Amino acid sequence: MTSEDHEDNLWVCNKCQYHEKIGSEEYFALLFDDHKFTEIGADLIAGDPLVFEDTKKYADRLNMTRKESGLNDALRAAEGKLDKHMVVIACMDFRFIGGSMGSVVGEKIAMAIDQAIRRKCPLIIISKSGGARMMEAGYSLMQMAKTSAKLTQLARKKLPYISILTDPTTGGVTASFAMLGDLNIAEPKALIAFAGPRVVKETIGRDLPEGFQTSEFVLEHGFLDKIVERKDLKSTLSKLFAQFRG
User: Fold this and answer.
1) Is 208 helix (H, G, I), strand (E, B) or coil?
2) What angle do CA 192, 197, 200 make, to 5 degrees?
């Protein structure tokens, strides 16, 4: 797909407002000017400290996923210009083990925050995740505290952090950096939850409200600041950053 196709299509059905799932490559093309950016921590790959094995060895799963997806892990980070504003963007990729958060995801977010502080520029994190990566157990859960602490450092420098929640944003990601933005913005009809609706329904033994845990439901109940269609995302962010600079 060419850059012109990206601009014309934006991976959204305008009639039904359904957003096709996309990853870091597409978001970087959408947001960075002329698709120019410098990647941060591109070579980081996960280890297997627990020598974990379920239906297959974790090491084998990592190797297979890297080969199939062309990605090193479930998040890429980069710096560049967004409508001439310097910005650091960290974006999750659902194709890599369901966008799960492991030690590499946490470390790349930390590196992205450090770079935003060095550049004195805004940070954007685009979440798309099934939650913490069970194959790394406590190492994965530690990233919730790590990323939250690093965002505190960014806040102390009075630099803006915009969190963009896409479909799905769940589990430990929702319970940490995804909901800590100075502004929390979601795409339409995204699933945003800690535990998913099936788990909640089975736990409480009751039917759930229509649209439960969609962006619109979460916005109505005060956990989001705004819902923005993908075609309007870059212009919305540009206006926000212009206010920051002003």
Assistant:
1) coil
2) 115
Of the candidates 42, 13, 186, the one whose C-alpha atom is nearest the C-alpha of residue 115 is 42
* Residue 62 belongs to a domain: no
- Residue 226 in any domain: the answer is yes
> What range does the domain containing 139 cover?
3-45+74-245
How far is it, in rounded angstroms, from Cα 132 to Cα 139?
10
Whether 157 is in a domain gets the answer yes
In the chain, how many domains are there? 1
Cα distance between residue 197 and residue 223, in whole Å: 17
What's the pTM value of the predicted model, to 2 decimals?
Answer: 0.91
pLDDT, residue 3, reads: 43
Q: With a cut of 50, which residues of the chain have pLDDT below it? A: 1-8
Grouping H, G, I as helix, E, B as strand and the rest as coil, residue 182 is: coil
| Burial degree of 175 (CB within 10 A; 0-12, 13-18, 19+) | middle
